[in-house]
Amino acid sequence: xxxxxxxxxxxxxxxxxxxxxxxxxxxxxxxxxxxxxxxxxxxxxxxxxxxxxxxxxxxxxxxxxxxxxxxxxxxxxxxxxxxxxxxxxxxxxxxxxxxxxxxxxxxxxxxxxxxxxxxxxxxxxxxxxxxxxxxxxxxxxxxxxxxxxxxxxxxxxxxxxxxxxxxxxxxxxxxxxxxxxxxxxxxxxxxxxxxxxxxxxxxxxxxxxxxxxxxxxxxxxxxxxxxxxxxxxxxxxxxxxxxxxxxxxxxxxxxxxxxxxxxxxxxxxxxxxxxxxxxxxxxxxxxxxxxxxxxxxxxxxxxxxxxxxxxxxxxxxxxxxxxxxxxxxxxxxxxxxxxxxxxxxxxx
Length: 348
Ligand code: IPM
Ligand code: MG
Prior knowledge:
The protein has 348 residues and is an alpha/beta fold. It has helices at residues 12-26, 44-50, 56-64, 85-95, 119-122, 157-172, 188-200, 214-223, 235-249, 287-301, 304-319, 335-344, and strands at residues 2-8, 35-41, 67-70, 100-106, 126-132, 142-144, 149-151, 177-182, 208-213, 230-233, 256-260, 266-270. It has 2 domains: 1-98 and 261-348, Isopropylmalate Dehydrogenase; 100-255, 3-Layer(aba) Sandwich (Isopropylmalate Dehydrogenase), CATH 3.40.718.10. It has 12 helices and 12 strands. Helix 6 (157-172) packs across helix 7 and helix 11 crosses helix 12. The longest helix has 16 residues, at 157-172. The structure holds 3-isopropylmalic acid (IPM) and magnesium ion. 3-isopropylmalic acid binds at residues 74, 86, 89, 239.
C-alpha cells in the first residue's frame, strides 16, 4: 500500500485536488499499485486551521508519504499577513529537500493551435526546464525597511553540483542536449554555476552542453523553442522562465510540475497559482493538475500505462477542440464538461 498525500491549498487548489482524487479512482483498473489517499490543509487553509501554512503536522505526514499532490496556494486575504501561504510552499520544498523542479512542454501538431506562437515555430517542441528549487534569492538573507531592502542570492558548490548532475542525467534519458542558463556576465553565483557545469561536463561525454545568458534565453524560448531539450537554471530564473514556458503552451493551466529530492516523496503540482478570482466557478483548466497526477504515477510509482492513458485522453480531448475558457473564450467549456470529455477518452 502506497500513501499519496494531498495538500489541499487555496482558490482553485481545492477543486483541483478533488479532481485528482476522482481521476485516481477512474484510472484504478490500470494501476498495479494500491493507494491510500490522505488530504490535509496546506497554505492559506492551514493558516486558518493551524496558524501556519506548513505546520508540523503537515511535515510529519509529508515525511511518511510516498508522493505528494499539491493543489495551488495563495489568496489575497493573506496579503497583509507576515506569514503568507507562499511561505509554506518554500518551507516544504526546503524541509523535504526538493531540490529539482521539472516543468516540461511537448507540443504536437494538434496542440500547436493553442499556442500564441506560429505553428511552425512551436510544433515539435519538446523541452524540459530543470529549476534549482532550494537555493538562490528565495532562501537568502532578507532585509526590508521603509528605505532599503536586500535579497541575498547565494549558492554553494554542493547545491549547484546536485542540480547540474540531475540535469545531465535527465538529458541522458532524453535527447542528450543540455543548455545551462545563467547571467555569468554579471552575477558571481552564475560564474560559479558555469564553472561547475564545465567541470562536470566531461563525466557525461555523450551530452552536448551549451551555455546561454538568461536574457538571451528568454528570447530564444519564444523564437526557437524547438532547438532545446533539457535546460537547467537557478531558482529565480527558473520561476520566471517556466511561466514563459506555460505561456507558449497557450495557458498557465497546461503545465504540470514535479519537485524531486534525494529519496523521500516527490511533490507534484500544477505550475500555476491559485487563481482565487475563478475559484469554485467551474472555470479552472484542470490540465496542469491532471498531468501532474500522470507525472506522479510515472515517476513515483512506475505506473507508465496509467500515466500514458491520462496524457493521451487529455491530448485527444484538446485535439478535438474541447478546451476550457482560458484557451477559447467563446467556445471553451466548463471544467466539469471538459473533465467528462477526458474521461470518455480515458482507455481503462
Ligand atoms: C512557483 C510559484 C512559487 C515560486 C510561488 C507561489 C512562491 O510561482 O512554484 O513557480 O515562486 O516558486
Ligand atoms: Mg512561479
